[in-house]
UniProtKB/TrEMBL annotation:
It comes from Oceaniferula spumae. Residues 1-31 form the signal peptide. InterPro entries: CAP_dom, CAP_sf, ConA-like_dom_sf. Residues 96-209 form the SCP domain. This is SCP domain-containing protein. Keywords: Signal. It comes from the Bacteria.
Amino acid sequence: MNHTPHFTRNWIKAAYLTGVVALALLSSVHAWEPGTDDASALDGFIVDTNNRRDVLAFYNCVYPASENYAANIAWTGNYASCNAGTTSPTFKDDTLRRVNLYRALVGLPADISFDATKSAHAQEAALMMSAQRALSHNPGTSWACYTVNGRNAAAASNLALGSYGPFSIDRYMFDDGDNNIIVGHRRWILYSRAQEMGTGDVPGDASRLPANSLWVIGNFKPAPTPTFVAWPNAGYSPVSLRPDRWSLSYPGASFSSASVTMSQNGSNVPLSIVSRSASGVGDNTIVWEPVGIPDDVIADTPYTVTVSGIGGGGPSTYSYTVNLFNPNIVSEQVAITGTMTPPTSGQTFTFNSLEQADSYELQVSTASAAAWTESAEDSPTPQIIDQTSPGYDLRSNSFARTGSKSFHLTHPSGVFSDQAFIVTRDILPTSSSQLKFYDRGRFATTTTTLEAEVSTDGGGTWTNVWSRNGAGLSSGNWDPTWISRSINLSAYEGEIIRIRFIMKGNGSSITQGSGSSHGFFIDDITVTNSTYLAGITTTELAGTATSFELNSTTAGSTLVEGSTYLMRVRANIGCRWFDYGPTKSVTAQAPTGYDAWVIDEYPQVTGGFSGDHDGDGISNGVEYAFGFVPTSSTPSTSIPQPIVTASSVSFGYSEPSGITGITYGAEWSTDMVDWDPITDTGSGGNHQFTVSRGVNTHIFIRHKITKNP
């Protein structure tokens, strides 16, 4: 039986709490704690939300760490026997980590722990909600799988039907729905006195929805110093966590006469206040719904918020800025600089560093024009990234246009998130390139879409290039055969792109099922008249690195004269790799000048142009420039020395024969800190450098030999 599951939440109906509630504001830090040295941490998080890179690193380390919860749950219960069972410690950690993530973002102590007894009773409550297919904070004895412990837990818990684990924590923080205008679930998670909770979860089955019971009431800590708590958080806030309802809390505050204004770059943002709830559900809170806030952003988008007319003895006005940003985008790319024609002997290139980068990855490749087709067969292994949920196989044998398998995107039972896979080939389209594939639609609502998308930044952002709607609920509308598609990619000529196929519910009703009657099937994907990166070699570089050597090691084989190499660098920040920076294309050439001199005459010399192989204080490049021997610490002749007169300091010399690929120069200084260039007044191979002494009592002068690009 096919049905469209829904998600339901009820706000907590609990006795009103009394007393002054407060919180000490955490001091700002530069790098989030505990940092990437402990990516599996569950609590103790501190993040500086005024620092974009800090929030980006924190979010990308801590949020994904809980995303494998569905595979981790290991539920031991049983519906038939009303056995609530248990979930794994790893799964509970996933849920706890998500709670503490939100608290850290708003500046609250991320020190929540789960009590074992509360979690055990919440487990019984979750089973009751799922078995009864309903939610109640006061379930009756007639409820399926009723227990007293479960009823008590339900009275003290946030409850969710249709989700479990960390996803339920996300839903509580969004707190949408007509019955959640006071955002009670959010307020309990962000309660300033909270210190202990418990979680119970069941994953559902073919006929029952998953459920969560998050025990939030009781064993509160003493009231700390009051402070405002905003959601979305003040400072940089991941746009993926942005709710429709915004809120501001303050212990003991009265928002009964408060007003809220919002602006974006000086323009007023319309809004409506939907709740001014007083005590009884976490801290006192005002809730409003702004109009026109985007679901996603590319550029950082700041909103200024001012809440005035606040009563209760605390501050009467509070202003702050929420800067929505895309946590998949680093604001600065890693760009490579250096020559376009490196010698086959190797060449050093530099790149700009990024704040808080844990490491970098250099990718060197060549371009292949070989034809390719991505299919779901066992051999050759598909070059894809599977972004589907557990519960079904992406590579299905239900249908196949060629071979025995095709790619299958669907929503399995209990899953509402978008389903996708990425073709991992890095493709370089031409003006005549076409994305070609075949698809076949089965059971899916007409508001569900299958889309093909292109990314030019390694998967950081995606652009739709094709879409289709679901075939509908009647089997008579299903595609009887495969449909051929062809999409023009000429707009991406010369760029490196990746392709993604994604099935989206688009916030509407969906169908759920993993069999051959559900979802979409895709097969035989290719891009015509294109090349793709081949012979790829990657090298990890330290987080402190700012340069690398293109050589036989980083290229994967000896550099070949006339061959083109494509190089790009990406950064690892906050436990994840971000997209590559711009690709630098170079063509190897036979060594000339200094490089040929080393290869032909002194192959044992190390350290490159600026190194000092023989340790005589003269760099290898200067030894080349003046005809010295770089393996002997005793030069056969001396470096040209300056001539000092009462009015000037100068030196002149003629280049040794056969020296190419360098520029002779000189600099002068009065303090050996700041150096200025000296004009070369010589001509041809003769060089003359003179600087006036003026009023200076002492002048320093030095040679400057530069290797040409």
